[in-house]
Design goal:
Length: 590
Amino acid sequence: MPQPRPRTIESLRERPYADVLIIGGGINGLATFRDLALQGVDVALVERGDFVSGASAASSHMIHGGIRYLENGEFRLVHEAVTERNALLKTAPHYVRPLQTTIPIYSTFSGILSAPLRFLRHGAGRAGRPTERGAALIKIGLVIYDSFSRGGGLFGKGTVPRHTFHGRRRSLQQLPQLNPGVRYTATYWDASLHDPERLALDVLRDGLAAGGERARAANYAEVVAADGDKVTLRDAVTGDEFAFSASVVVGASGPWTDLTNRALGDDTHYMGGTKGSHIVLEHDELLDATGGRELFFEHSDGRIVLIYPLKGRVLVGTTDLEHDMAQPIVCTEAEVDYFFDLIAHVFPTIPVDRSHIVFRFAGVRPLPGHGELAPGFVSRDYRIEAARLGGPGASPDSPTVLSLVGGKWTTFRASAAHLTDRVLELLARPRVRTTKGLPIGGGAGYPTPERARRQWIAAHSDRVGFAGAAALLDRYGTRAAEVIGAIGADDGALGTVPGYTRDELRHLAATELVVHLADMLLRRTAIAFLGLATREAAAEVAEVIAPVLGWDAAAQTAEVDHALAAVHAADAGYDTGAAAGASGESVTAR
């Protein structure tokens, strides 16, 4: 079980060395941490913010094979992504679930000639008006995608439902509020990722459990410099700095990789990330109009976008814009207007405005540098770059730095396995265990047939009731048993946040390396995503977990202000000053 943060950061200071130091606590860094811990390697991980608070926190909540990568000719990536998607449906069924996906189509043959040119040139160039993908081209893509998908099996080998095509009449029967100009719809299956942050935390916990004292991870711990064969770590809470040494350094800081390397004395130019923003809407009519499926389609500018029902809300995204990592990462008002436009393109009779927005988030994809290549055609594949600590002029005996360039949520296990194999080669150690097919966190022993699910719930319902056990199983997988064990007989529900109890939050604060209130609202729970992070709710959560984290009244007030600012960090129009004085007023609806 994870230790409280003071002991975690102190363990790095007290034993300031490891075989491997991983920089970056996103999903790729955490998965590499778990893999190395499983091999018995002495491994440490540091993350300058909270775990899963960077690019990994800004995903579209999908685990997908990447059907659109086919026209870029990225067959290796699609095959790997589909294989990993199929595996995650079995190893993490508590968070990764089958997702019916429908593509509205407005033409028959459009794009059939331009697509081969994109394939041959890998999407090169920016000039020219985007060419819409018509039914014939989408049909070809889905036939190829089926061949990849059915090889591994979404519900077992060879049993993935094939895609279906429907004409206008049948399409409007299934989705009556769809744009009446639609000519066809194509429906296929991918997978949803209901709780990305919680899945990543499960990966972290598994790594800590596997490695024992030889696996250490600290959030709010930043690498600020290199000094000879050591790096300097800074405790972001206290400001204290200390030296740390490792034989191999793994850079997994995503779009910040070049900035991390510069701090280590190597002026790399590997990255060329693009910003993607999303909005979360509370809109019952739009939610009903989706029919419980994701709408995945091409907007007028050629960008692939989505409208996605999730947790009783509607997720809308995403953009793909060049971004300077020195600038704030925010969802702009222009992007919000873009989202409203794409909704109107698919559901023209459903009015949507800013009052429906309950949450915004934005992140930068860890893409490789791509010159003049249009962002939508930049490869989502990954590679590993090797250098010496300190850069080109460093001694040949200096520790090796391995930088992960690229990568995506779906392929995190595979990219971590490649990184781990490179590290093991440098350490002259054999791989002793594979992560293929290895259950993740609360996915171990998860009851997938409905009968088994009901039996599990009934067996764990004494303290929390049947409905309570069902909700916790959905939220934590089989690790819900730990949460239920921490709930006392006199536990009570939160007054401001439906569905969460006081003992549940205290347990999370005590066992999941929580440092700030924002960690709880944004990543340990779905409170912010659901639009429930009012000032009143933040204050109540702070009061509940204060005894666990040692906060006095002044600290609670400061944490509330900091948390609300963090919740709205991606909102370009949010007034933090006004929110600080709006006691009890919702600051998530804009």
